[in-house]
Amino acid sequence: DGGITQSPKYLFRKEGQNVTLSCEQNLNHDAMYWYRQDPGQGLRLIYYSQIVNDFQKGDIAEGYSVSREKKESFPLTVTSAQKNPTAFYLCASSARDRSSYEQYFGPGTRLTVT
Amino acid sequence: SQQGEEDPQALSIQEGENATMNCSYKTSINNLQWYRQNSGRGLVHLILIRSNEREKHSGRLRVTLDTSKKSSSLLITASRAADTASYFCATDPPQGGSEKLVFGKGTKLTVNP
Fold first, then answer.
1. Which helix (H) or strand (E) holds A25?
2. Distance of residue B21 Cα from the nearest chain A Cα, in angstroms
3. Rounded distance, CA A97 to CA B14, Å?
4. What confidence score (pLDDT) does residue A65 get?
5. Half-sphere exposure of residue B101: CA atoms within 13 angstroms, side-chain side
6. Of B73, B78, B59, which Cα lies nearest the Cα of B107?
């Protein structure tokens, strides 16, 4: 069953702690993305990676970090430097061969920091 | 920065009616896509229309694109309660490439049974 998995679905952390959100895909996609969604808002791009061992900052990268050591995995760390980390985080992937521009999304992780 | 702006922000209709959502954008695009998001879930791709296309159909969905007005519309015909969701347009600016879709804020559609 191909797709993208994100875990956990809900995550609670105390202010000042770093937290890592997991994203795994078995679609053999080269490109992967992290988005943040706030209530009633659209998606804002945090980081994206077009190939293993390479990634670029999106529009709101401050306070976040990523790694791309394997094609299948693109974990996102929300650091204590992120001023307002409570949000819904979505991971996505897409093919890079231009046969399809569609992005495939995971189910999301809702992070609450208190 | 958000390029696409959906209109209306919220739409409530009765089952069986048609639902029309609009998207306006600011800069030129390669493609425009529509996605659907059920509450608390990830987005699901619905349809893509290329900049050289004017209209596209997929089942009960009809998408139009007017590049001169920098706008697109999504029509859902004969709506069902299961169509209740938020709908987002996403544009693919030429300078960003398809790797950097820019999403609007969405239209929240409620279909009442």
1. strand A19-25
2. 15
3. 41
4. 97
5. 29
6. B73
Task: Determine the Cα–Cα distance for residues B3 and A101; give it in Å rounded to an integer.
Answer: 17
Query: What count of Cα atoms within 13 Å lies in the side-chain half-sphere of residue A114?
Result: 3
Give me the helices (H) in A2-46, please: none
Residue A37 has which token pair? Answer: 């969604």
B98 has a pLDDT exceeding 60: no
Nearest to A33 by CA among B97, B104, B40, B74: B97
Secondary structure class of B81 (helix, strand, coil): helix
d(CA A8, CA A16): 20
B68 interfaces chain A, CB cutoff of 8 Å:
no
CB contact residues (below 8 A), chain A span 54-73, against chain B: 58-59
pLDDT tens track for A8-66:
999 999 999 999 999 999 999 999 999 999 987 889 999 999 999 999 999 999 999 99
- Taking the C-alpha atoms of residue A11 and residue B19, their distance in angstroms, rounded to an integer, is 35
* Separation CA A110–CA A97 (nearest Å): 31
Q: How far apart are CA A2 and CA A20, in angstroms?
A: 23
> What local confidence, expressed as pLDDT, does residue A39 receive?
87
